[in-house]
Amino acid sequence: MDVRRLELLRELAERGSITEVARATHRTPSAVSQQLRVLEREAGLPLTEKAGRGIVLTDAGRALARSAADVAVAIEHATALWDEFRNDPTGEVSLATFPTGGQMLLPGVMRRLEAVGGLTLHCSDRDPESDDFPALTSDFDIVLAHSASSAAANWQASEIAAVKLMTEPLDIALPPGHPLAEKEELLPEDLIGENWIGVPWGYPFERTILDISQAAGSPMNVVQRFGDTRVTEAFVAAGLGIAILPCYTAGGAYRSEIVLRNLHGIVSERHIFALMRPDRAERLAVRTVVDALRAEAAAVVAANVHRNPVPRERG
């Protein structure tokens, strides 16, 4: 069976439709269908069947799609071994990042990769719900993802390759004149009755607000929800509410207009991972970028621990 046709079957298993496979592989739907029919003849068993207006994989199709993933990993592993023998981590690597992760890590990563000739890193920003980050690995070699806790555990237990990069504290952001800004540390009960600038449902910081509410024994009043932390920072700086913000990147243009305070009594942090399909994780160029991400993440943590050595509760 042709490896390229096996890869199309794997794409169909992951994406769910001929149209999406065609879009991702830059083919026409008819060309994809034709290649899958050839693969079906090679396999000697039906691999797909009609379901409504589309098609789904048969049991044989699903089994062969899993084998296709194993084949892809083996091929990339063999290629990586040859690249290592030649000491040649060249090629193009695509990376998707959530905004604050890109702000915090990617400039330093790009500088680290300048010494690696022939390796080009193409970056794009994405910020889906925590559970939706793995789906991006179909379109990108590396996906930077963040989660409060549960999704990170799911990533590590899934078939996706998940490399832990760092844990970043989450702080309470306040306008400078706020009464709570006079305290060095805050407890959940201190935050009862405050107006919150929250995040859309499913975003990592929402879990922390719910934990605060549970620990305080009172619901938190979320008056606005934004996915972009820059908008949240503007609202906090204007005195329109308080918010959860990532410790290492909070402030930006509003650094002098926002006060950050440690939160105690609950675990307030986010976990940052690099997610990859297992076959792409074998590529030497991809592993070189991941090594740069890990080194930069370690440098960011070390720099911020030096500036802010206050111990925090950890999960």
UniProtKB/TrEMBL annotation:
Organism superkingdom: Bacteria
Keywords: DNA-binding, Transcription, Transcription regulation
Xref: Pfam families: HTH_1, LysR_substrate
Domain HTH lysR-type residue range list: 1-58
Tagged with keyword Transcription regulation: yes
Any one cellular-component term (Gene Ontology): protein-DNA complex
Keyword DNA-binding: yes
GO molecular function (one): DNA binding
Transmembrane stretches, start-end: none
Protein family (similarity comment): Belongs to the LysR transcriptional regulatory family.
Protein name listed in UniProt: LysR family transcriptional regulator
Organism: Herbiconiux oxytropis
